[in-house]
Prior knowledge:
The chain has helices at 2-28, 78-89, 121-133, 151-159, 184-188, 210-219, 268-282, and strands at residues 32-39, 42-49, 57-63, 93-97, 139-149, 176-179, 197-202, 228-232, 247-249, 262-264. By secondary structure, it is of the alpha/beta class.
Amino acid sequence: MDRMRTPVTLALVLAAALHGAAAAAASAEVAHVAVEIPRDGGVLKSILFKPEGAGPFPTVVALHACGGLFTRSSAIATRYRDWAEHLVKAGFVVLFPDSYGSRGLGPQCGVRQRAARTDHERVADANAARHWLQTQSYVTPGHVALLGWSSGAITALWTVRRAARPKDKQDDFRSAVALYPSCRRLDNAAWSARVPTLILIGAADDWTSAQLCQRMVADARGRSAGTAIVVYPGTYHDFDHPNRPLQLRGGYALASDTTGSIHTGTNQAARADALRRVPQWLAR
């Protein structure tokens, strides 16, 4: 009888162990809360990730790409949760303004004329997020940085542009990081940064040109506050995604060719470098 029970017992023990491991993994996820921030014309819905403790902590305003902050099932997109967990573990508060959901908009990758423009409404969102954070007791007011991906990265660059210095009397953004932005319009506008700014982009990116960003940074030399760019060889858009196989995806209204298709996918070497480099830059 004991021998007959053994496989069943082992199966139950294994099931309990797996359940415990899953529960431990779930509990290890960084908690987040939804917050609403006053803005002109309404509220800016946002998601806040915070380390344990009273702080004050250095803080990051994180700007989503054209796909929006959430998945179709209303979960926070994998890339943003992954970055939030890494940054919180590094000691940062992270706030994600939802520029699309706050305006009743869905994903905008297939939209050419967007209601939430990268150089206008979304810049206002970034500054509204900074203002709100600087009133929170757990935030170091003078250490709020800016991070963005793709269209959110474009907004990050417009936000810290030297010519766009805010008129409010609160502390400015401390630094900025832009992951694979499109630099064409910024380059044409003779962009330069008023805070230390880092651009990370793939050399093989067929949506946002690394060469244009390199030229923009080179042209801004002497007028920018410590701007740097890292170009990863053989690397495409979304290289920092934790688990996206390289693929050709369609439906992008602002793609560089007429097919509306781009290559997107994880590059493990570039991702590892970004996960190391970004927190170091934001901690400056």
